Automatic annotation (TrEMBL):
UniProt KW keywords: FAD, Flavoprotein, Monooxygenase, Oxidoreductase
The organism's place on the tree of life at top rank: Bacteria
Domain FAD-binding: 2-342
NCBIfam families reported for this sequence: pbenz_hydroxyl, PRK08243.1
GO biological process, one term: benzoate catabolic process
E.C. designation(s): 1.14.13.2
Classification via PANTHER family: P-HYDROXYBENZOATE HYDROXYLASE, TRK SYSTEM POTASSIUM UPTAKE PROTEIN
GO MF: 4-hydroxybenzoate 3-monooxygenase activity; FAD binding
Protein name: 4-hydroxybenzoate 3-monooxygenase
Amino acid sequence: MRTKVAVIGAGPAGLLLGQLLHKTGIETIIVERRSRDYVLGRIRAGVLEQGTVELLEKAGVSDRMHAEGLVHDGVEFCFDGDKHRFNFRELIGRTVTVYGQTEVTRDLMHARDASGAVSIYEADDVTIHDFDTDKPKVRFAKDGVSQEIACEFIAGCDGFHGVCRASVPAGALTTYERVYPFGWLGVLVDRPPVADELIYAHHARGFALCSMRSPTRSRYYVQVPSGEKVEDWSDDRFWDELRRRVDEETAERLVTGPSIERSVAPLRSFVVEPLRFGRLFLAGDAAHIVPPTGAKGLNLAASDVGALAEALTEFYQGRSSAGIDGYSARVLARVWKAERFSWWMTSILHTFPETDAFGRRMQRTEFDYLVSSEAASKSLAENYTGLPL
Ligand code: RFL
Ligand code: PHB
């Protein structure tokens, strides 16, 4: 097999890159180690920045998102029971859209099927080669048969545990990492959301988040210590814990039901530099991880591949390598700002085992300042709705 760009991974980053490149006539093959159903079964992000919405429009996959996605003008923070709403539309004239990652992925898979472009699911033993030359290769096995793709570029969109970052020679990479001593236990339930907008709650017992997927499907999270097992949490235990962490009115309004999915996600901040090695590019979770508190992971993956698609288009149509040469620095500048915001949201909203009385007063004072200062509220609003690339 032969193609221009071999894309490793069919998560949102890989599929969106494939679609953006298809729009500019650049041929791709996507190689994914899991099945389609497995990829669609992963319940993850829910909040799209305005820039992500615009990129999905550009990719021609926005019809269902506009029909079914929920446009939110703001979010609420609840600090030890005291609630405050941040109205992004009033503060800075921007909004976010609640539309599940699963649905974004489904729309992108349909568009790729319609385009006739090749996607290989359930590819085993994927390896990448010769990306320090202008003839890179991807090898894998499909149904026990070894295959090779000769290509001109490789896009590593294979997530945090992928093969692409791991294939870069040691010493060529610098990594920055922080692992938090807690995770999020998430529950998906077919019951109407407790409120019209998201509620981020800080409580002495830990963080909680009330989110949603649709007017009839809700997504809730509670902070749990690292290593917590999902089997140790019955639905009743989860609902009791959630009620204790939010304000009384929200607790009373909560409509509970049997969970349809439950999982624990660890929290981590991680960045690797640079994002290009010869003819290999890293994008999305393969390059960086944020704790989910700022709702940035999917949005960063989208803006990375938006920039990469522009750079590759410039290479093929404009015959200039300026875009691909500048990719890493351009993308990393935005990544670090999203890392800062996600770390900051995590720091004020969670309880940390090592935090003393002074630290707790600092968290409270951050909240009071946010609420009382229009400048601070605007800063939250511009970061949450997404900074420009
Ligand atoms: P993905 O989605 O992990 O996709 C990578 C794909 O690569 C495949 N793969 C391989 N394929 C071939 N060969 C190999 N050797 C391979 N190794 C792996 C994998 O099977 C997979 O299909 O990465 P991508 O595309 O970069 O997308 C990133 C996002 O998925 C991620 O950042 C977000 O889900 C993070 N996230 C959130 N982001 C937001 O913007 N807003 C949110 O509200 C939000 N909430 C969340 C989140 C992540 C969460 N978890 C579970 C980590 C909430 C949670 C709970
Ligand atoms: C979600 O709905 O899954 C979600 C929403 C906001 C976040 C993280 C996750 O910050």
